[in-house]
Automatic annotation (TrEMBL), chain A:
It holds the Pfam family SBP_bac_1. Residues 1-20 form the signal peptide. InterPro entries: Bact_solute-bd_prot1 (IPR050490), SBP (IPR006059). This is Sugar ABC transporter substrate-binding protein. It comes from the Bacteria. Keywords: Cell membrane, Lipoprotein, Membrane, Palmitate, Signal.
From TrEMBL, chain B:
PROSITE patterns: ABC_TM1. Residues 113-326 form the ABC transmembrane type-1 domain. Keywords: Cell membrane, Membrane, Transmembrane, Transmembrane helix, Transport. It comes from Myceligenerans indicum. CDD domains: TM_PBP2. Gene3D superfamilies: MetI-like. Pfam families: BPD_transp_1 (PF00528). This is Sugar ABC transporter permease. InterPro entries: MetI-like, MetI-like_sf, UgpAE/MalFG_permease. SUPFAM superfamilies: MetI-like (SSF161098). PANTHER family: BLL4140 PROTEIN, DIACETYLCHITOBIOSE UPTAKE SYSTEM PERMEASE PROTEIN DASB. Belongs to the binding-protein-dependent transport system permease family. It is a multi-pass membrane protein.
């Protein structure tokens, strides 16, 4: 009895010691991921880069081979949301943040507001802004003189549809939203199992893109105050339009990215998808049986004389406020996102649609394998990308997004156009209340 | 962790015996050489602390400190000034009880509490009733394949809640569910379990499916410890098997049933994994469907740790009050017999 007790107590003590050791080792590591150990100006600088883009390390290798003095180490992250949570925790803790951070466009105001990313406007060459579409550049400057990141890839939206099914039912590709509604109605009448699309209450980023196309910008900076324009005529117009289609039952009301939706893409009950330039990757993964049957067209338009589109997804690269080598970091991110060789590698290795306009013309020639039947895929993409409308994200876009999930879930379940408009009003209320509560100054 | 105390017990009992000042105990020679030679007092006081130290350190580091920090956070908040864009535009300040006030005044929080109450009324009786029934059936003398039955009923408990929610999610979605495929062939029109009226049953079903096994094993184990003489006596008196179950088995295993009830109640208040996993599949589950989902949303989607901490403290206190309140209420009935 005494012996076993002794052993147990000893084991417990040992475990405690191990835990303590684990804690200190952990904090040591966290410190090491910063650049504290190589602050000596003479030696080579090591920069840490948090990213989740596939195969991005092959692009970084190109830089490392040519720049022995500025070595970049890739640290793979799970994705946009967890990486931001981790970064904000490190910023709060005062250490542990990387030098360079991949950031989705909608997260930039939140990162700036938490003082997580540095203003690198003075560290970039003057012609950097000229590489990008105005709407994209606006997302990294927040409309100010500061530059908080360099755009990497963008997600201009297009309309993806099953060309074979369109042919079978004698449908024309819609060029306006009126025609889209018409086609949706006609298709569903001919085969009640089929839908031209679904309104997904799960994908706030998708709805942002649709309203962006209609000319909405959910936030604005008005002197020293934020303005929230979610409940604007443009957003109401989009909500009412989709609410009407869902109310009539000609558009599905189930969320995207569910097993059921995948099945629908695969078996042809989802005939169209309003998506972004990365859609071929999703379709080839979720609906592998439909290779060669899809085609892409520009988004249906509100005004055919002023073609426009929105963006869904895409990210930029930022220098964090904890980096001790912002100059070197800025040089690297400028190279990665604007140098022709790097942009080509972003396309070939990571499968991104680069935000850099001059580089992407050369880098994108052959259509993606899943769309090998559509030779002009990237021509249409480039044409639509230039019509991406400017859009401003706000510091609590996360709150607006989760309000979208809840309010539009209710509205799509209720299947009524009035509920869609009410959802927009509720989102505005929740978002403004949160800003005011946090102490932001908000313009009425 | 209780080992050090048991180890020390004989010593303490001896000390207690000494206290009545009965002379012959005092005259007993000290047990070991070491103790007589000195440091006896110090040794006696230090040893228990040394043995307790690991438990105390672990408790303080991983339980008390985080709880204390959460309580501290729940009285704080972050205030932004102006556009909130420049460095230093965010400041953590004291917020009094404002986080608590807004938590209890929040309609979404109250709705989630109501939902969880309904969910508990659905899950706990069905789950414990089935667990008791299965335990009694397994315990019945004529039951065949007892081992297989026990493992088969227990197995769902071994499936993590996230996995089982995904599996059931597939079965609930009419587009991919084999059940709905059959219903369609039979010409039945069965509404989707994800519609707003039925989603409660969809979630409850997963919890019941996963929870029966564990509770059955607890009740079954306590059934097996009943001495068989009791049954023999009952049979001699002409009791039926149902009579034995009702009048002997259930009263004897009542403490186990009460324990499983308390566990189930706590699990109900903390329901999170099932609705969170099902949420993306359905329009009927909001991000604040249960109180813990609201805590998660506040902390990780909205980045408001302070409100999340206040809501967590409220949930913790409610759990504590409900569990101990219930135990107090039933203690005299369930455990009183032993003392009587």
């Amino acid at each position: 009895m005494r012996l076993t007790t002794g052993i147990k107590a000893g084991a417990a003590l040992a475990a405690t010691a191990l835990l303590a050791a684990g804690c200190s080792a952990g904090s040591g590591d966290a410190g090491g991921t910063g650049s504290g150990d190589s602050s000596d100006a003479a030696g080579p600088v090591e920069l840490t880069f948090w990213t989740w883009a596939p195969n991005i390390e092959k692009v970084v290798d190109l830089w490392n081979a040519d720049n022995p003095d500025i070595q970049v180490v890739v640290n793979k992250q799970d994705g946009g949301d967890p990486a931001v949570t981790k970064l904000l925790t490190a910023i709060e803790a005062g250490s542990g943040a990387p030098d360079i951070m991949q950031a989705e466009y909608q997260k930039i105001p939140q990162l700036v507001s938490n003082d997580a990313v540095a203003d690198i406007s003075g560290l970039l060459s003057d012609d950097t802004a000229g590489h990008f579409a105005d709407g994209v550049w606006n997302a990294v400057t927040l409309g100010s003189d500061a530059v908080y990141a360099v755009p990497q890839d963008s997600g201009p939206m297009q309309f993806y549809y099953r060309a074979d099914i369109f042919e079978k039912y004698g449908l024309d590709v819609p060029t306006t939203w009126d025609e889209y509604a018409e086609v949706a109605r006609e298709l569903h009448e001919q085969d009640p199992d089929k839908y031209l699309g679904t309104f997904s209450a799960n994908d706030a980023g998708w709805f942002v893109g649709l309203t962006q196309q209609a000319g909405a910008s959910w936030y604005g900076i008005d002197g020293d105050s934020w303005s929230v324009n979610i409940d604007s005529p443009e957003v109401q117009k989009v909500a009412e339009y989709w609410g009407g289609l869902v109310e009539d039952g000609v558009i599905d009301n189930k969320p995207m990215y569910t097993p059921e939706w995948n099945q629908g893409l695969n078996d042809g009950s989802q005939v169209g998808w309003l998506s972004a330039i990365w859609a071929p990757g999703v379709l080839s993964g979720n609906a592998p049986d439909t290779a060669g049957k899809w085609k892409m067209a520009p988004m249906p338009q509100w005004d055919v004389d002023a073609p426009a589109t929105g963006a869904w997804g895409g990210s930029a690269t930022a220098v964090t406020s904890q980096s001790e080598h912002p100059e070197q970091a800025a040089r690297f991110i400028e190279w990665m996102n604007t140098d022709p060789e790097a942009v080509q590698a972003l396309v070939d290795e990571s499968g991104l649609y680069p935000a850099d306009i001059p580089g992407s013309e050369d880098a994108l020639s052959d259509p993606p394998a899943f769309f090998s039947n559509q030779k002009d895929f990237y021509e249409i993409a480039a044409r639509t990308a230039q019509t991406t409308q400017p859009f401003t994200y706000g510091p609590n876009i996360n709150v607006a997004y989760s309000a979208y999930n809840d309010e539009f879930a209710k509205a799509t379940e209720a299947r009524s156009a009035d509920a869609f408009v009410a959802a927009v009003e509720a989102m505005q209320q929740v978002t403004v209340d949160d800003l005011v509560n946090s102490g932001f100054s908000v313009a009425e | 962790m209780t080992e050090p105390i048991t180890q020390d017990a004989p010593d303490r009992r001896a000390a207690a015996a000494r206290r009545p000042a009965s002379a012959h105990v005092l005259e007993l020679p000290p047990s070991t050489e070491a103790r007589r030679r000195g440091g006896r007092l110090l040794g006696r006081h230090a040893a228990p602390w040394a043995f307790l130290a690991p438990a105390i350190v672990l408790f303080a580091l991983f339980l008390a400190a985080p709880i204390g920090y959460s309580v501290y956070l729940s009285f704080r908040t972050e205030k932004v000034s102006g556009l909130g864009l420049g460095p230093g535009s965010r400041q953590e300040v004291w917020n009094g009880v404002a986080n608590y006030v807004s938590a209890v005044a929040d309609a979404e929080f109250l709705a989630s509490v109501g939902r969880v109450a309904l969910y508990g009324l659905l899950v706990v009786p069905v789950m414990l009733g089935s667990a008791l029934l299965f335990a009694l059936l397994l315990d019945a003398r004529r039951t065949r394949a007892r081992r297989f039955g026990r493992i088969a009923i227990f197995l769902p408990y071994a499936v993590p809640a996230v996995i089982s929610s995904l599996l059931w999610g597939f079965l609930y979605l009419p587009g991919v569910s084999p059940f709905y495929w059959v219903f369609e062939r039979l010409g039945w029109s069965v509404p989707s379990l994800f519609s707003s009226h039925l989603v409660m049953f969809a979630v409850a079903n997963i919890a019941i499916w996963g929870g029966i096994g564990f509770n059955m094993v607890v009740i079954y184990t306590s059934l097996r410890s009943i001495p068989s003489e009791l049954y023999e006596a009952a049979e001699l008196d002409g009791a039926s098997q149902v009579g034995i179950a009702w009048r002997i088995k259930i009263p004897i295993v009542l403490p186990s049933i009460i324990m499983t009830f308390v566990f189930s109640m706590i699990a109900t208040l903390q329901v999170f994994a099932e609705p969170t996993t099902l949420r993306p599949l359905s329009n009927s589950i909001s991000t604040t469907w249960t109180p813990l989902m609201k805590v998660y949303r506040d902390a990780f989607t909205r980045g408001d740790l302070y409100s999340a901490a206040a809501t967590s403290v409220i949930i913790a206190v409610a759990t504590f009050v409900l569990s101990f309140g219930f135990l107090r209420l039933v203690q005299s009935r369930a455990f009183g017999q032993e003392e009587r």
